Fold each of these.
Amino acid sequence: DAGVTQSPTHLIKTRGQHVTLRCSPISGHKSVSWYQQVLGQGPQFIFQYYEKEERGRGNFPDRFSARQFPNYSSELNVNALLLGDSALYLCASSHFRDSPETQYFGPGTRLLVL
Amino acid sequence: DAKTTQPTSMDCAEGRAANLPCNHSTISGNEYVYWYRQIHSQGPQYIIHGLKNNETNEMASLIITEDRKSSTLILPHATLRDTAVYYCIVRTRQGGSEKLVFGKGMKLTVNP
């Protein structure tokens, strides 16, 4: 079975640009969560989406946005990139309805902002 | 707002059991303990989770103390491929959202 897939694997942008990262969940999973991991730290929660609706948001500025599509894939958008946005961006999928819910992570997209 | 405390690092000899401790003294009665690991900047890999009882799967065992204030992840026969950062997480549900609150984790190094 295919796991969570993310694209692209690596990306280089310059300050002020915007970026779109993509995620496809495990088949049958309807929830997608996004996390940011800067070097040396654990992942930090950005968003969770379920059934195309935002269900939770972490402490990130409005430059960060996301959406979920009818096929449950998701995009994370970051506008006006800053050097500090350089990080590994992780997507995780889950059934959401399960209790407890277990999130499974993709390999991540490594973003470098110059 | 991580709710767990782990040692920064630990070494283990290949083939021996690795016992990874975690303190979560403020855990609530309905909160689960989850363990993930991350190998060299790959995505975190789910290992195991538990509420009250000890749990075992093909990867590891999880021992939770009776007062639930601490737990231990046990890798029964550590291999070099088990070298990774291990995260102990108390699963938090806020409103209708599930989020995992990661700390810095613990670096386990398995030595030959």
Note: The CA atoms of residues 35 and 88 of chain B lie 5 Å apart.
Amino acid sequence: DQQVKQNSPSLSVQEGRISILNCDYTNSMFDYFLWYKKYPAEGPTFLISISSIKDKNEDGRFTVFLNKSAKHLSLHIVPSQPGDSAVYFCAASASNFNKFYFGSGTKLNVKP
Amino acid sequence: DTGVSQNPRHKITKRGQNVTFRCDPISEHNRLYWYRQTLGQGPEFLTYFQNEAQLEKSRLLSDRFSAERPKGSFSTLEIQRTEQGDSAMYLCASTLSRVRTDTQYFGPGTRLTVL
């Protein structure tokens, strides 16, 4: 029962261009949505989050957009840099944060 | 701040043996989570502790799995009678409720291989 889905296993982008990573969810009880970045041989690292009362949250080059009616969120990285090459996971939780559900990840490759 | 640490980093065992992993969260982090991750998948929730109380357990956590956090600091995850399907990366994460409950800090994981 995959409640958070990332349908694109990989994405390749040229340095300096925009990277858009997508995520869909099925559970309307989710209140918080997060993006994590993961390098090989390391645990995931928190990147940015958004609560369900907002539709956009920005932090430097990273912006997360939430469309509650479509149960869809996306992560925009502008401009993309080679150091952004990693696997990106989308995650969701209800407001009690007792459990987090993760997508299967999208491997981003930013070409110099 | 040394971050979340996990030991061992790698464990190879034979089917049927018991294994135990340890997680040391960031000091003062009262929330601790265990996840399992297999190749090509995202972390899959196993269990959650707030201080020493285990408040949430996944259906995936069969009776061969048990987790403890006896003093609300470090935690252990034990797998009894290991099976080949238990081969995975086991991740631990912690958060501090009164600061940013949504921000989990992950350890590097323990990779388990069951032969």
Note: Chain A touches chain B at residues 4, 6, 9, 32, 34, 36, 41-46, 49, 89, 91, 93, 97-105 (CB under 8 Å).
